[in-house]
């Protein structure tokens, strides 16, 4: 049966926009056609920004955008525009800054009303369809705005112009801020701030909702390596343990088949009830956190969690069709929180794919195994959700490991090994049963920025765990991007690929995160091609995004007439700020190539954010990692000789096994020597390692044990 309505979004590639292609709302994608219509017809724009795995976006669509009465108001009095925030993070940042400043909060779906020249005058997030619970309904807001546009046009335009001036003033504060000379004391201040926020009972930082901000863990690991402060390390390890046991982790997985990974965040402080969507960027960053935890602690449980994440990405989130090789190419973006409870259901429910009733567990596992499994994972006949405001988890259980295998072995008078075998078998049973349920929606677009984060994770997974599968995955995804989204003549990137189409000019995050991936892949493979491309893309990044006057990098390129202002990302949040990653990339490349222009760009970036770092260092923990690299003299580890010999592999293993945050690794190859003349002077008869600081090297060694001592 054909859809009753079809609008212009049907021609888009974004899964989010396509979800709205059959709304009665006459949606336009962001672009000149919509903007020109608003100017020609002198109508305000209603801008709706969201993403395809956003729960409240689905709610507002069902309640309002599928409502023909609401659609009639939108179509008559407004030019309605839909934007996928994951495709256009630069637009999202501008209007989210306005919404947060004007309402005190933000989120998605984001609803903003603009003048035809794109200046905002009213904004919010989710609106209920009708007035209720003291909140103004969406239809009421639309009618009021339409009326005011006719009766008080001049006042609205004046408000919008003042808004833009205030936004420009706010976003340029650091341009004129006094620059601060930063010292290692800023690291102590940040560590103290995180210690004050730390939840010593459940791990994490702050209360509910609780997010797995991997950037904090990155800083804590770096700080521990710098100071040896075990209290700081334990905050991270404790958090990672609690997350791994929590409901935020998908405990049901089968090796080589799928499942596993982490959900977006926990709605409570216990890591128990997640918002069930799974994002590529979260899992990429957390994989690295668990790998580093394994390096620092030697506890194999951390390595196992990283392997589970990689299993999930390889099985469920990798584009198999994009490459002839078995592991495919690019990585998909996300899986939805909502899904149909059964194939006969007409309405989706949050977490339906992941939750269990006690009777299901009993039926699948049998009485004794179910009793043991239920003890470990807190399964109850009445359900186990500590809070259920929307009544979605009645009699449902979200797996959370409240007891260890050792606890279970004592309680049920058996061995820990038997308990581990039972749990592994039970998870496989549950996986097969769950595979018969309707799956959540998959957002299968490939974003360069998020792929960059995942490539880094797989590259480091190969280094730490020695599994060639991970190096292959990193290589395949990199080659996919270089083939589909990289212009080798201009050294520029496009941002998004889906179903054979690449599009949207790359943003700063695409350049910064992908350059980081190329450097991590180079240090894992020692293929000099990746170093060369990283250098070319960094040069392009400087040209397209750098603020040559004040320092730092804008999120979007110059010359986009549809952007009312260019902004600089100044917060390490769910994703690291691309400014933080760009600064560290530039410092790494400066050490690899001895290019002063890279070092100077990094210095200007750190100086630009220096006052913010001094006053609120916990706001930019990933930039503190870059600052740490800058303030310490990094180790340059240079390998010479054939890469294929067992001796060279032993030397590389000695390097990879250690957590050495402030280092670069180079191989003395002819191509690498074109970037650093110093490499031409290294001639050896057998595989040899040189550990240097400022190109002054310790005695060369071919012995892994001696190399380990030098690295210590």
Description:
This protein is of the alpha+beta class and 712 residues long. Among the domains are: 8-171, Glutaredoxin, CATH 3.40.30.10; 202-317, no CATH class; 354-436, no CATH class; 636-711, Glutaredoxin (3-Layer(aba) Sandwich). The chain has 28 helices and 22 strands. Helix 26 links the parallel strand 19 (635-640) and strand 20. Helix 4 runs parallel beside helix 6 (138-151) and helix 12 (280-297) packs parallel to helix 18. The protein starts with 14 loop residues before the first helix and ends with a helix. The model is unreliable at 322-327 (pLDDT under 50).
Quick recap:
The protein has 712 residues and is α+β, with helices and mostly antiparallel strands. Among the domains are: 8-171, Glutaredoxin (3-Layer(aba) Sandwich), CATH 3.40.30.10; 202-317, no CATH class; 354-436, no CATH class; 636-711, 3-Layer(aba) Sandwich (Glutaredoxin), CATH 3.40.30.
